[in-house]
Amino acid sequence: MILPIVAYGDPVLKKVGQDIDPDYPKLDELLDNMFETMYNAYGVGLAAPQIGLPIRLFVIDAAPFADDEDLSEEEQKELTGFKKVFINAKITAEEGDEWAFNEGCLSIPDVREDVFRKSKVTIEYQDENFEKHVDTYDGLVARVIQHEYDHIDGILFTEKLSTLKKRLIKGRLENISKGKVNVEYKMKFPKQKKKR
Fold first, then answer.
1. pTM over cut 0.70
2. φ/ψ of residue 52, rounded to 5
3. With contact defined as beta carbons under 8 Å apart, do 22 and 57 qualify?
4. Are 149 and 17 in contact (CB under 8 A)?
5. In the predicted structure, residue 96 carries a pLDDT above the cut 70
6. Positive or negative torsion for Cα 67, 70, 75, 77
7. Where are the extended beta strands (E) located within 129-186?
8. Can you tell me the distance from the alpha carbon of 121 to that of 137, in angstroms, rounded to the nearest whole number?
9. Local confidence band at 196 (pLDDT 50, 70, 90 cut-offs)
10. For residues 126, 128, 129 and 131, what is the CA-based torsion angle, rounded to 10 degrees?
11. Is 159 a catalytic residue?
12. Range with the lowest mean pLDDT among 24-28, 38-42, 111-115, 189-193?
C-alpha cells in the first residue's frame, strides 16, 4: 500500500527514532509498504519518520543511481544490487574526505542542494530478520545511508547547509509545509489549510 509521505515542517521529522524489537506489529507489511511508497515516489531511500513513525527503521534501494555513466563498472554493480532494510541502526564511524553531492528528499520536494559528507561509513544494524550486521560502505551507498540515518536521528539535509543557503530556501520550505508545491506522489502537509 502506498503511504503518504510526511512533508517538511511535521514534528515527527525532528524526533529521534525509538528502537524496535521483533514483536513490532505487522513489520513485514510495513516494510512492503515502505518499499512500495519509495518506488512510487522514485526515491532511493525512505525512513520511517517520513511516513509518520518515530522509529529507527529505513529502507534503501540504490539501483537508480547505477545508471550514472560517470561511475566505474564496479560501483554500478554495487548500486544495482544494493537493496536493504536497516533496523535499529547506529553509525559507529564516518571517515575519509568530505565530498559534496546534490541531495534531495522525498519530504522536501523540489529542493536540491549540495551537502558535504564523509566518504566512508561503518554502521551496525539489524536486517528484517533481526540478524545483526556491521558493515562499512563508501561512495554513493555511504551517502544514501548517511542521509536516511539522519532521518532516524531527527535531522534533515537542509540542516547541513550554510546559513546563507538556509535563508535562501526558507520561503520554499515554508511553502512545502503548507502544501504549496507540485508533487507527483501522496503527501501529508503539516500546515495545509483544511478544505471545508
1. yes
2. 90, 10
3. no
4. no
5. yes
6. positive
7. 132-138
8. 5
9. low
10. -20
11. no
12. 189-193
